[in-house]
Design brief:
With 603 residues, the protein is an alpha+beta fold. The chain has 17 helices and 26 strands. Strand 15 and strand 16 form a beta hairpin.
Length: 603
């Protein structure tokens, strides 16, 4: 495949609201897990006694690029400390995971696939020349063990076999050795065939199983793109077929998929796991880079600008395990859980509600999204996602000043030491696009940049807020990449405690969010008005959103889900208005921690 290439943290730097978002992340859980969370602080990966499987690699996958994007020397040194410990513990035969030699056969080698992928991220950031050889030796040992049937794929490794292709591709580019291609074939042969599993996705079950596990499925979307070249197979856009089935039977208003923790249908009160959100983003990032198909970049925007900020607290010290489209409270369920396979507190904001995988894994979301802003191929640079940022690439300098997606104005300042082609992807929803004041058309704008000249490009376009049909006779509101919700005001109830030797204390304690404003609305007019505001110190602030939409609505007798006091019914019990017309202000989904996103329209 004639793929686009990513830039690294040495070439891209965030600006504007994006830099502030990354700073908040560094000041929150992401930047502090190695100081206070036992599964990272005391991990077996660095000689400790705590978890020695996925959590340290997950954390490093986001912490490393975050440190380098912010040029934070303390964070960079802390990352190096972990990488040094992992490398120093590598066995003579190449094995790298913290597992006794006689237990390798029962050790789920998903961790092998994950740590090699993370090491490629570290190499891109640090340019540490030890890394290619370390990865080579890990993969050569893994190949030998698989070939001799001393280990095999099972459980998580079986359903995440394609994750290893990141490191295999990285290594094959450098060494061009045939055993790497055979390793790729072995992984696919032992891995799950997702196309054969599609019928299972059409009807949600209250049954935990790997083949409907939402995180596996979000990782899976990129499988053909990352593997086809190494397997010498034709690319067929199989991801679109799989995406269409998932969307038809399990889609949400923010273009994620329900999974709490396995596929959960089309109800707006079922959850979506945070790990699935960031893995969906990563799959889309790679799908766009490998294929150049604009649909993946546009879908990426919707997930990143809505689902990611919605499920993490403003200060990024707390997160949910699962989020709901219609979420009127985040309070422990009394009695049984609402979720299909999650417990009764998976939707609370906390340190590690339900499982700690998301505590470690959500860190990759914003940093990798930042690195998706620009791509390159040959003599062409592409601005794929219009994020405030700067690019410095061998004499090419591009600075983008923008508040996108909160408004639609982009100012590019460009100069270069050599000629190159600069392209900008324009979203399909953009209307009345202008370049330096002149109307233009097309999904991709192209500019010839001349050496020694300073070029300024101003791009403006319009977006129209509109209703979007959802199942069960409900509607969401969308404007550009942003989905809007009725915000529900809330009070926070803090919980500090110790569970399984893990302390929760401020600021990394648990919170229940309890509603204190009405939520039982129906739209009663199709007029929608966008109101642009200033971006606060917290870009996706739950109290000071940077943009809102005014709408007219009436309260209705919506009702509660059977057996629950703080969960709205899946569909309203009645559409009969019980109030006069009110003008309400809709918040971006990512700003509304409690919200109603899918609601009806009444006369």
């Amino acid at each position: 495949m004639n793929k686009w290439n990513f830039y690294t943290t040495n070439e891209i730097k965030p600006g504007g609201w994006l830099k502030r978002q990354l700073q908040i992340q560094a000041e929150g859980l992401s930047g502090n897990l190695d100081k206070m969370w036992p599964d990272v602080r005391d991990s077996a990966w660095i000689g400790g006694t705590r978890e020695g499987w996925e959590r340290v690699p997950y954390w490093l996958d986001g912490f490393v690029p975050l440190a380098y994007l912010l040029e934070d020397q303390d964070m960079i040194e802390r990352a190096k400390k972990y990488i040094d410990a992992i490398i120093s513990a590598q066995k003579d035969d190449g094995w790298i995971c913290p597992c006794d030699d006689d237990k390798r056969a029962t050790y789920d080698t998903w961790a092998v696939l994950l740590i090699t992928k993370v090491l490629t991220v570290y190499y891109d950031c640090a340019k540490d020349e030890r890394i290619p050889d370390v990865i080579y030796r890990v993969l050569k040992n893994y190949y030998a063990l698989l070939k001799a049937e001393k280990v095999k794929l099972f459980e998580w490794g079986k359903y995440r076999w394609y994750e290893g292709f990141i490191a295999i591709g990285f290594t094959y580019e450098r060494y061009q050795e045939d055993w790497l291609l055979e390793l790729a074939r072995i992984l696919k042969e032992q891995g799950a065939d997702y196309n054969a599993l599609v019928p299972l996705w059409e009807r949600p079950l209250n049954w935990w199983r790997q083949d409907t596990h939402i995180v596996n499925l979000m990782m899976m979307l990129k499988s053909e793109a990352v593997s086809c070249d190494l397997l010498n197979e034709e690319y067929t856009d199989n991801a679109e077929y799989l995406y269409s089935i998932l969307s038809k039977y399990n889609g949400t208003a923010v273009e994620t998929f329900t999974g709490d923790e396995c596929l959960s249908g089309l109800s707006p009160i079922q959850g979506t796991e945070l790990c699935a959100v960031v893995e969906q983003m990563y799959s889309y990032e790679l799908l766009y880079a490998y294929t150049g198909d604009n649909k993946w970049a546009e879908r990426l925007e919707v997930v990143a600008f809505n689902a990611l900020p919605a499920t993490i607290s403003d200060d990024m010290w707390c997160h949910q395990y699962v989020q709901m489209s219609n979420q009127i409270a985040c309070e422990r369920f009394p009695g049984r859980s609402l979720f299909r396979t999650n417990n009764a507190e998976a939707h609370l904001f906390g340190l590690e509600p339900y499982f700690g995988c998301c505590t470690a894994n959500f860190n990759q979301g914003w940093p990798k999204f930042t690195l998706s802003a620009y791509l390159h191929k040959g003599n062409t640079v592409l601005n794929a996602i219009m994020l405030p940022s700067e690019l410095n690439d061998n004499g090419k300098h591009i600075k983008l000043e923008t508040n996108y997606p909160f408004d639609n104005r982009m100012k590019y300042s460009i100069h270069a030491d050599e000629d190159f082609i600069f392209k900008v992807r324009i979203p399909s929803f953009a209307e009345n696009v202008t370049v330096n004041g002149k109307r233009t058309d097309g999904s991709e704008l192209s500019f010839d940049i001349k050496a020694g000249e300073r070029t300024e490009i101003l791009i403006d376009f319009e977006t129209t807020p509109h209703f979007k049909g959802r199942p069960h006779g409900l509607y969401s509101v969308q404007c550009g990449s942003l989905i809007f919700s009725v915000p529900v005001k809330y009070e926070k109830k803090m919980h500090e405690y110790i569970k399984k030797e893990v302390e929760r204390k401020y600021p990394y304690c648990d919170y229940e969010y309890l509603p204190v404003s009405p939520w039982n609305y129906a739209y009663c007019d199709t007029e929608l008005t966008v109101v642009n505001k200033e971006i606060a110190d917290i870009p996706f602030s739950s109290h000071m959103p940077p943009v809102t939409v005014k709408a007219k609505a009436k309260e209705i007798n919506w009702g509660l889900e059977d057996g629950f006091e703080k969960v709205c019914a899946k569909v309203p019990q009645s559409l009969e208005p019980i109030s006069d017309v009110q003008e309400i202000e809709l918040y971006p989904y990512g700003c509304a921690k409690l919200r109603m996103t899918e609601i009806p329209i009444v006369e």
